[in-house]
Amino acid sequence: MQTIGERLEEARKRKGISIREAAEATKIRGEYLHKLESNSFDLNLPEIYIRGFLRNYAVYLKLNADKIMADYKTLAPNEGRTSRRENREVYGRLDLSQTARQAAETAPAAAGTEASAAAPAPARPSFPASAGAGTAPIDPALLIKGGIAVVALVFVVAIIFGIRAISSGPAKPTAEIKATAQQTITLIARDTVRVKLVQELDGAELFQGPLIKGEPRTFTKRGSLLLTATALQNVDIEINGKRQPNPYSGYDRVQIP
């Protein structure tokens, strides 16, 4: 099966187009096109730009852009988050197993101690009390039983906290949740353009219609959005009031993280 880069390169050469001609037509730098055809997607750019370049190049070469993007999605670099989550889960299981193993090793010793405590203890020789000793000696059997009770309590608490840590996972900071809930996106028309904005999380349509030159539209943003425009180069994007670069052009749909 051909890789993404091989399909792009083959389609370009089949049409007799050079990298320079493709770069001028798509407004994408030639070095980026070289990397896409070489399956080197680390362009040192935000992920939204890489996806936009890849889709625009596939459309320009008249390839199935949706199929290209689906194949690219399987190669998206998510290993960092997965490995961190797996590490937390492994550590949680390791701590719990170590606690259970320690308790298993302690249980036989505790049982033997109780058995020995139940058997008649040999008579201890009595010694005359030293001068000034005013307290009675502590029974060793009570100390052993108290130690067993403490170990059992620690074991139960460790199991409860281990199960909670594994099932609930790390709590998301309140500040991060609030920042996500209050995130906004503003579309500003450079020229008259028709746009459609959809919430990717639940497919809810936030807006569909024309924007006249200079008209801003602000929406509450929850997660990624899908923006479709008749001329993407005529749309400026601001997220939380900060202007974002717009490398797109023509009639297309892009993802805004």
Query: What kind of oligomer do you see?
Result: single chain
Structural class determined from secondary elements: alpha+beta
- Order of strands side by side in the largest beta sheet? 4-1-6-7
> Helix tally?
8
Structure overview:
This protein has 257 residues and is an alpha+beta fold. It has three domains: 70 residues, Orthogonal Bundle (434 Repressor (Amino-terminal Domain)), CATH 1.10.260; 58 residues; 79 residues, Sandwich (Immunoglobulin-like), CATH 2.60.40. It is 49% helix and 17% strand. The strands form two sheets. It has a four-stranded antiparallel sheet with strand order 4-1-6-7, with no helix packed on it. The protein has a four-stranded antiparallel sheet with strand order 3-2-5-8. A hairpin with a 5-residue loop joins β2 and β3. α4 runs antiparallel to α5 and α6 runs antiparallel to α7. The two termini are 30 Å apart.
